[in-house]
Amino acid sequence: MGGRGASRRTFLVGAAAGLAGLGAGGAAATGRPSVAVLGGGVAGMTAAHELAERGFAVTVYERRALGGKARSIPVPGSGRGGRRDLPGEHGFRIFFGFYHNLPDTLRRIPVPGNPDGVRGNLVNAAEALYAFADGRADLHVPWSLGSVPESLLGQLSAPALLEEVRALVETTLHLPPDEALLFARRLLVYLTSCEERRGGQWDFTTWPDFLRANGKSHDYQRILVSGPTRVLSATRTANASAHTVGVVLEQLLFTVLGRGADGQPDRVLNAPTNEAWIDPWERHLRRLGVEFRIGWTVDDLVLEGGRIARARVRDPRGRRLDAEAEHFVCALPVEHARRVWNERLLAADPRLRAAATLETQWMVGLQFYLDRPTPIARGHVYYVDSPWALTSVSQAGFWPDRDLPADYGDGRAADCLSMIISDWDRPGILFGRPARELAPEQIARETWAQLRRHLDDTGRSGLGGAVPVSWFLDPGVTGLGGPHPGNADELVVHPVGSWHRRPPARTAVPNLFLAGDYVAVPINAASMEGANTAARMAVNALLDEAGSSAPRAAVHDVYHAPEFELLKAEDQAHYRLGLPNLFDVDR
Asked: Where in the sequence is the signal peptide annotated (predicted)?
C-alpha cells in the first residue's frame, strides 16, 4: 500500500503544461509520456488527476458526460425566469465515513473559500431511517457517537462487543433475545475471520445463509438480512455475498465507534453533485493540462505486438478515428468495457474473460420535486418492505446555500426527494408489474404509491401532505413501456463467488490498466470509493511499467481493528486446517 505522508501538490504541472495536442491522438504531441484514459467517470477522472499531477499528458475519452454514474443530470428545459434547470441526479450520493481514498482526492480539488477543497462540501447526515409498510413505527437510527455504549468506545474485546451488539439489536430493533444473540455472534464471526476465510468461504456463502436466516422472524429477515443489502443498492439479498455485505457492515461499525474514519458515518454534498464536485474537478483537471474528448465513444482496443497500439473511437459526429497513446487506462464501466475486450485481448489476459462475466443490474435515479419542504429524515431512508427496494434522501435540506424555488425550475419546487429504484424485476403494488415493463409515468406513480405505503401508514403523514409538482427519471433508461427497454448505466452487484472474478488493476498487456468499481480493491463493493481506489492502483501499476520516479498514489486500506488481529491469525490457522472460526458455533 502507498504511504499517506507524501503530498502530491508538489507535483502539479499546472496550466503551463499547455494543451495536450490535436486530434484523437491528443496527448502524444506534447513530448511527455502519453496516456489515453477511456471513460470519464469517477475512476477515469481520478486516474487523470493522479497522472496529470505526475507530469503525464492525459486525454480522457467520455461518451456522454463527465462524472459517469456520479454526475448530476439537469432536467432539460425546466428552468424559468432566469432560474437554472432543476437538479436531477443519476442517483443520490453517499460518502461513507470509512472512505479514505475518495476524500483524499476531494481535498485536492480547489474550491474558493474551502481550505479543504471539495471535501469541505460534505455535510453530515444525522440519521438513517428504516421505514416500514405495515403500521409499525419507523426506525430512526442516529449516527451520533453519543448513542454508542461507552464500553465500545475504548479497548474492544470480543465478549464486550458480543454483549453490546446483542443488547443494541434486542432493545432498539425489538427482536427476540435469541435472534439478537444470533446476529451478534454472526457479526463476531465475520470480524474475527481471516482474509483467506473471507474470500474462500464467506464469498461463496450467501448473506442470508451466513446469518442463519431460515426460520427466523419477519423482522430479523427484513431488518438484519435485507436491510444491509439495501446499502449495496441493486444487489439482491437472496444471493448476496456474505464477504461483501460483511466488510461494509464491519466498516460501518468501526466508523460509528470512531475507529479509522475520515468523518461521520454518512455524508452528502451541500449542493447538486456537479456544482459541488464534478464541475470544480473538471476545471482543476483542465488547469493541470488534461484534455477531454466529450461525446467520444470507445469501440475497440487494437492489440499489436503484445501491446495496445490504439483505441478505435468515434467522435460526436460519428467519424471513426484512432486514439493513440503510450499507455491506456480502461476506466469504462464493466458493462461497456467487456464490449471492447475483443477475443485477442481476452486470449492475452484470461482474467478479463472472467471479469466480463461479472453481473450487473439496474439501479436508476428518480427525483420528485415537491411543493413544500419535506424533511422525512435527516439522512437516507430505506423503504424496508418496498418491492422495488427503494431508498431516498431529501436533498434540499442539505443545500444551505441553495434556495430551490428561487434558484431552480419554475419556482414551484420547494424540495427534491431523490430516489433510487434498485429492483426492476419484482411486481409493484399499483400495477402489479415490474418497473422494466412500465412506462415512465407509471413508474413515477408506482414509486409514489410505494412511498406513501411506507410513510403514511401509521395514521400521520410522513410526507407532511407534500405532493409532487414534477418528477424526473434518469434518461439513461430507454424504451420503457416497449418490448426492449435498456439501461446505459447498470451497476455491478455482488452475488456469491464474484470476488474471484474481479480483475487486478494491472493486466497481462503491459500498457493496459483497469480502473473501475469492478476491480479487486480492499472495499469489496461497487462504490465511488472502489472506483477511486482502483484508479490509484492502475496509476501505480502504470508508473511501475513506465519506470517513473514519481511518488506512487496513496492507497489506503480499510480499517483493521488491532484487537482482532491475533484472533484473525488464529482463524487463518483454523481455516488452513479445515476448521471453523472459533466463534462459529451456530452450525
From this structure: none
